[in-house]
Amino acid sequence: GAVVSQHPSWVICKSGTSVKIECRSLDFQATTMFWYRQFPKQSLMLMATSNEGSKATYEQGVEKDKFLINHASLTLSTLTVTSAHPEDSSFYICSASGGSDNSPLHFGNGTRLTVT
Amino acid sequence: GQSLEQPSEVTAVEGAIVQINCTYQTSGFYGLSWYQQHDGGAPTFLSYNALDGLEETGRFSSFLSRSDSYGYLLLQELQMKDSASYFCAVRSLNTNAGKSTFGDGTTLTVKP
Asked: Chain B contacts of A101, Cβ < 8 Å?
C-alpha cells in the first residue's frame, strides 16, 4: 500500500525560529500532497495543497508567508513554519493519495511542534 | 461548503458491537471515508463508500445512504485496541481525496 513518511516526528523550537517538516511518498509518486493541522481533541484542518512544480494552494485563513510549502519533486513536499510562535504549536500531518483519483488518503505519522 | 456531524463520544465494552453515525451536507457528493486515529498518532484509512450499501473489511464495516446523506461505521467484536478517535470525511466532486472535509471525530472508549 501507499506509504507516506514524515520527519521529524516531534520538534521543540524557540519563538522566532523556523522549522522545516518533510513529507515523502515512499512507494508512489505524488503530484499532490496535503498539509493538515490538528489541535488537541479537534479535527483535522486542511492548511494547503502542495502541487509538484508549482505554487501551493492555501486554504482561507492560512498565511502563505508564514507556512512556506515547497514541492520540488514527485516524492517530497516540505512545510516550513517561519518565525514560529507558541500559538503555532500543533500537530502537523501531511498526506497524499495513492495515485489514482479514487485512492484514499494516506497520512504521514505527523510532526508535533512545540514552540517555547 | 461541507459539514459533517458525528457523536463526540461513544463507550462500549469488549466484544460488543458499536455503530458510529455520520450525517453530512455537501454539494456534489463523491464519497465518504472513515479514518481511525489513536492518541498521538496519525489517522489511518479504514473504509470508503462511494455507492449506497455496506462495505465490509474484517471487523469493520461502513454503510452509506446517499439519499439520506448518512453513513455509519460499524465495529464488531470490539477490542481494547479499538479505543481511538474515528473521523468521517466527505469528498466532493472534482476534488482530490485530500480536499476531504473531516468531521470533528468520535472518541470511542472500549472498557473491559
From this structure: 96
Count of Cβ atoms closer than 10 Å to residue B102 Cβ:
23
CB atoms within 10 A of CB A19: 18
A86 burial type by CB count under 10 A (0-12 exposed, 13-18 middle, 19+ buried)? exposed
Is pLDDT above 70 for B78? yes
Of the candidates A46, A93, A97, the beta carbon closest to that of B42 is on A93
Q: Tell me the pLDDT tens digit for each residue of A3-62.
A: 899 999 999 999 999 999 999 998 888 888 999 999 988 999 999 998 888 889 999 999
pLDDT single digits (tens) A74-104:
899 999 999 999 999 999 999 987 555 566 7
* Closest chain A residue to the Cα of B105, Cα to Cα: A43
From A8, A26, A23, select the one nearest A79 (Cα to Cα).
Answer: A23
**CB nearest to A97's CB, from B42, B44, B98:** B98
